[in-house]
Design goal:
This protein is of the alpha+beta class and 169 residues long. The protein contains five helices and nine strands, in the order αββββαβααβββαβ.
């Protein structure tokens, strides 16, 4: 396992992998879960390095994020995780232990309570500092129609990036 990276060193790798999927992992007290995310942003807010992720109301992860203090985003840097990303992106942690079912190692975070995916590649550990609900009235009508016909809106979660490192074998 290598040392700390600066928050934006691997931003290009993150942004290129995101549409193919990364793991968002969360702990809420005794409960842990991971789900696939495809949307996100890395940037600078409140003089802090920040990673923002978007989670719909219907996700089990949304329930955990009500109680969680932090989250991790584990970004695969090779194709090994293709199948598990499809699994964690279609099955719900309400119904199963996705770590077990998809053979993912829930590794202890360095600086947060939430787990990270073992031997995944690139890891961002984030402290939850802001949540933002969407006001549908403010969204471009074509996007509202395309993505929210069921009114299952995203909540945006802003995490201060407290640790970035590579955890591949
Ligand atoms: C490639 C890919 C990207 C996804 N991106 C997101 C996302 O950014 N936000 C979201 O809420 N759901 C996203 N999903 C869907 C969730 O991963 C999926 O609904 C998952 O089963 C939720 O798990 P949970 O109920 O255990 O939280 C994505 C799915 C895939 C396959």
């Amino acid at each position: 396992m290598s040392g700390q990276l600066s928050y934006n060193t691997m931003a290009q790798e993150l942004l290129e992998q995101l549409p193919r999927g990364a793991f968002l992992s969360v702990r809420a007290k005794e409960r842990i879960n991971t789900m696939t995310i495809g949307w996100g942003a890395i940037g600078y807010f409140w003089n802090l390095p920040v990673l923002m992720v978007a989670v719909r109301y219907s996700r089990y992860t949304f329930d955990l994020l009500k109680e969680a203090r932090d989250f991790s985003v584990s970004v695969p840097l090779n194709a090994d995780f293709k199948k598990s990303l499809a699994g964690t992106g279609s099955k719900s942690g309400r119904d199963m232990d996705k770590f077990k079912v998809f053979s993912l190692k829930a590794e202890k975070g360095k600086s947060i309570e939430s787990p990270v995916i073992g031997n995944c590649g690139l890891v961002y550990e984030c402290r939850l500092i802001f949540k933002q609900t969407m006001d549908p009235e403010l969204l471009a009508p074509e996007l509202r129609q395309k993505f929210y016909a069921q009114e299952d809106y995203h909540v945006m979660y802003y995490g201060e990036i407290v640790s970035v490192y590579l955890n591949s074998k």
